[in-house]
Write a structure and sequence with these properties.
Number of strands: 9
Strand content: 5-15%
Strand order of the largest sheet: 2-1-3-4-5
CATH architecture of the largest domain: Orthogonal Bundle
Radius of gyration: 26 Å
Helix content: 40-55%
Number of domains: 3
């Protein structure tokens, strides 16, 4: 079986190639990052079985590729992989041997499409025998050029010696550098193998990275959502207290707007979308927006301000209380003020509060458009440096650095909301030992600088 993948986004091509390799180990997969290159690959391999192609590409778009292929290969199955609606493009109207998969797609949608096409090609018996073989396949082949692009899949890599013997040649965590690629090329090794069970976890994270980036880039082009106009007086007061920079405020505002655009079509977050739209609960909405600005300011001062990191913290800020209604949010604030977390399990309301980090984290974990690690931040956002947080009572060294940023920023904001007259400098100065453990220490030091504690 020969399959061609065409997309000007290399990450999407790599994702498709890995997914196909996981399920169809015997397939020969060709890749191209432009329409022209894709056409050339088909001309060189006229026995190609199917072509997966994006629409929006420079020079020749997916529609142009389809039209050109129809001239010489009228029965070649063409699968448009795009968020574009094929009905909006006349070249696809009433087209035969044409299929559509909408981005983002699920594994089952991709595999179902391949199976459907192979069955239509009268290869059902070959498909069935191949599937039986795949069920018992423990290793997945990956081309060394693909491994080089991925750089580090955090899995062991194996060299195939015989049908039943694989030798480990790369340990987990090792970067597959240009030197590594050249080393194997000199030995005429084109493919290495990865353990299927190990690789599944990597693929989950990689897929979230690819789809969340696509969604974020698309959302940035949509109409901006006005998120701060009704909070200007609060914003000015908080800026005076915390010394936020105009750059951080502007960036946070843009990122909140983009995240809301990503969220708006997700039914799982319908209640949150309505809340943000109507601003019915101003305390919850204000808390979310102020927290996002604080996170942006702190992360920039730490020097951790990659676009992906700020995206993760923005989503975490918007979604960490997504399973709470207005009353539960108010109850959470009361318990936060009284530091009364240990009694949470004793009442129905308390149990809902106790489980909300896990409930919200699971929503983001299972949402393909949400960046990886957001679920970790949300799951850990009520853990504490002394190990007495909830729901897992994690020791500080088990808390992620981004979760530590979130925890400190939320603590700081809550203290100010609870008591606007509180001297935050004195308060945080008294917390030096409490926040002195890793990974909290660098965050604490930045907050001290913000509060002008020397």
């Amino acid at each position: 079986m020969k399959i061609l993948l065409i997309d000007d986004e290399p990450d999407v091509v790599d994702l498709l190639q890995m997914l196909i390799s996981m399920e169809y180990a015997d397939a020969t997969v060709f890749t191209a990052v432009s329409g022209q290159e894709g056409l050339q690959k088909v001309y060189e391999n006229p026995d190609m079985n199917m072509v997966f192609c994006d629409y929006n590409m420079p020079q020749i778009n997916g529609g142009g590729v389809f039209v050109e292929l129809r001239k010489k290969f009228p029965r070649l199955d063409f699968i448009l992989v795009s968020s574009e609606n094929p009905k909006s493009h006349p070249e696809f109207n009433d087209a035969k041997y044409f299929h559509h998969i909408e981005k983002p797609f699920s594994d089952s949608t991709l595999y179902g499409m391949i199976k459907k096409i192979m069955t239509s090609l009268d290869q059902k018996s070959a498909m069935t025998s191949q599937e039986v073989t795949r069920e018992h396949t423990e290793y997945i082949p990956l081309e060394i050029e693909l491994l080089h692009r991925l750089n580090n899949i955090n899995c062991s890599l194996y060299l195939k010696i015989s049908d039943n013997k694989f030798v480990k040649v790369i340990h987990p965590g090792t970067s597959f550098t240009s030197e590594e690629m050249e080393r194997f090329q000199k030995k005429e090794v084109e493919t290495l193998f990865v353990d299927k069970k190990e690789f599944v976890n990597f693929m989950k994270e990689y897929k979230k990275n690819v789809f969340s980036k696509m969604a974020w880039d698309l959302a940035k082009t949509q109409d901006k959502v006005d998120v701060l106009s009704e909070n200007m007086s609060l914003l000015k007061k908080m800026t005076d207290v915390f010394g936020w920079s105009e750059e951080a405020i502007k960036e946070a505002q843009e990122n909140i707007s983009t995240a809301i655009n990503v969220l708006k079509n997700e039914s799982s977050f319908e209640k949150l979308n309505e809340l943000l739209k109507t601003k019915k609960n101003l305390k919850l909405v204000s808390h979310t927006f102020v927290l996002t600005i604080m996170l942006t300011e702190v992360i920039k001062r730490l020097g951790w301000d990659s676009h992906k990191t700020i995206e993760k913290l923005t989503f975490a800020s918007l979604l960490h209380d997504v399973t709470l209604n207005e009353d539960l949010f108010a109850d959470k604030q009361t318990m936060y003020i009284n530091n009364d977390f240990l009694s949470l399990k004793s009442t129905l309301v308390g149990s809902k509060l106790f489980s909300h980090p896990i409930d919200a984290a699971n929503l983001t974990l299972n949402w393909s458009l949400c960046p990886p690690d957001v679920d970790v931040i949300i799951r850990q956002h009520h853990e504490r440096p002394d190990g007495l947080g909830f729901p897992m009572e994690l020791a500080p060294f088990k808390i992620s650095p981004l979760s530590a940023v979130f925890i400190v920023c939320e603590d700081l904001i809550y203290q100010h909301f609870v008591d606007p007259d509180l001297n935050l400098s004195e308060y945080f100065s008294s917390k030096k030992d409490y926040y002195g453990r890793e990974p909290f220490r660098p965050v604490f030091n930045v907050v001290m600088e913000m509060l002008k504690i020397k």
